[in-house]
Design a protein that fits this description.
Number of domains: 4
Radius of gyration: 33 Å
Helix content: 40-55%
Strand content: 5-15%
Low-confidence stretches: 66-79, 81-85
Largest sheet: 5 strands, mixed
Number of strands: 9
Number of helices: 15
Structural class: alpha/beta
Shape: flat
Distance between the termini: 56 Å
């Protein structure tokens, strides 16, 4: 028997017709009866397959009409699985995420449920699935509202009595402030998240009829910074006793930043520095993650030193995950577990695939096992996850290390070649790269 495939739209229409028939005590059409019979027989057959355990997940989807019967051929299995593809979202899903829908309900004024159909004059109108029209409109990021407050004045003493502003207006910035908290936040988001310079915000405001000059925007953004800075400092203080840290650097630019003399963290001697970086740290405290960023002339190691200076002396050694760069290592504490990022370790090989396809393909397949093991640990507690990786991932990491040592010892790979350097990176940082199997 062929399983009946029916679209969501067709099923909704069928259900509506059935509900109308029940509500109005009328019979359904012969076509609808056949359709219900086919659906019932389809599910009966589906149930039979399930009872016989003769069905796979993919077959189940096909039988339920969730996937088409025809399938496209997949890519060649000979190609290495370089990166796990992310699930692509449809344009509709992206819109749903980006656009916050504000619902407006519109009532039919001319007709009502139960009225005789004005077209055929025979049937009666029944409630049906509403028609939905999505309209996306544009507004200025800043909206200026003039509040005109009624005032009364005593003709004897001259006292004024003024209407109060609504509670929601007062709460958003106070009664006597021109710029609300939400307006300041939007200015800051456009500047530091959207990357829109202050003078360009001024130009856009002029264009949209809400002019605010760049110097005023700067003043308002500074107020946001002043309000957020105590929170930032408090989060750094809480992060000092974190169980683990993840950190990394990325280059950035501060136009006014020039060369400065900064004491070396290890020797204390002044050293000329000019590199501007944004350092990011994720600290795990009591099962929650605190995300901190700092942009200045300095590295992530200096940022984590700033945090760890306030660490409780009795706190256990933290886990610190980063790449193998010496500039990321802390200096204010010596008792810590350094766990290195395997995404960086894998990338050392991944970038060389075009030049050494056979050898790199083998390494990437081994790393693919590590990635799969991590997926299998989803939902496991920390202890079970560690045990699983120790039993299943550590032997694979050892395989890569042994393979690399053999490649260098037999001279099959030149030590100073790009692949040789990638192998030496893995071997030299093996303890840190396998820390996820030990801590």
């Amino acid at each position: 028997m062929i399983i009946k495939e029916i679209s969501e739209k067709e099923l909704d229409a069928l259900i509506m017709r059935m509900e109308s028939a029940i509500e109005n005590d009328i019979s359904i059409t012969k076509e609808d009866m056949k359709l219900w019979l086919e659906i019932g027989l389809s599910f009966a057959q589906l149930n039979e397959h399930l009872a016989d355990n003769d069905i796979t997940l993919h077959k189940l989807k096909k039988l339920a009409g969730l996937v088409s019967s025809s399938e496209k051929l997949k890519g060649s299995e000979d190609k290495p699985k370089l990166d796990k593809p992310e699930k692509q979202k449809s344009s509709k899903e992206k819109e749903e995420k980006v656009v916050e829908h504000k619902e407006c309900h519109h009532k039919l004024e001319v007709f009502s449920k139960g009225d005789v159909c004005p077209k055929c004059g025979k049937g009666k109108l029944y409630k049906y699935k509403p028609a939905i029209t999505v309209r996306v409109s544009g507004n200025s990021p800043l909206v200026s509202t003039k509040h005109i407050r009624e005032r009364l004045r005593c003709n004897a003493c001259g006292e004024y009595f003024t209407a109060q502003l609504p509670k929601e207006v007062v709460e958003d910035g106070g009664e006597d402030k021109q710029y609300t908290y939400s307006a300041r936040a939007i200015m800051a988001i456009y500047r530091y998240f959207g990357g829109l310079p202050l003078h360009r915000q001024e130009s856009v405001g002029d264009l949209l009829g809400v002019p605010v000059n760049a110097s005023t925007i700067l003043d308002q953004v500074e107020k946001v910074s002043d309000a957020g800075n105590p929170i930032f400092n408090h989060l750094k203080k809480i992060s000092a006793d974190a169980k683990s840290y993840q950190q990394d650097d990325t280059t950035n630019r501060i136009l006014s930043a020039g060369k400065v003399m900064i004491p070396d963290r290890r020797t204390g001697k002044p050293k000329e520095r000019s590199g501007v970086y944004t350092s990011g740290i994720i600290a795990e405290v009591d099962g929650k993650k605190i995300v901190l960023f700092n942009t200045n002339i300095g590295h992530a190691g200096e940022f984590i030193d700033e945090i760890l200076r306030n660490r409780n002396a009795n706190a256990p050694p933290p886990l610190i995950m980063s790449d193998a760069s010496a500039s990321n290592k802390p200096t204010v504490i010596k008792d810590y577990h350094l766990t290195l990022c395997n995404a960086h370790g894998r990338r050392e090989f991944y970038d060389l695939y075009e030049h050494f396809p056979d050898k790199v393909k083998w390494v990437l397949k081994k790393y693919g096992i590590i990635w799969d093991n991590e997926e299998k640990c989803t939902g496991k507690n920390a202890e079970d996850r560690l045990k699983y990786h120790h039993e299943n991932s550590l032997p694979v990491m050892l395989e890569i290390k042994t393979w690399g040592e053999t490649m260098l010892e037999t001279k099959e790979v030149e030590e100073n070649s790009a692949l040789g350097k990638a192998i030496k990176y893995f071997i030299g940082n093996y303890d840190g790269l396998t820390a996820f199997c030990r801590f």
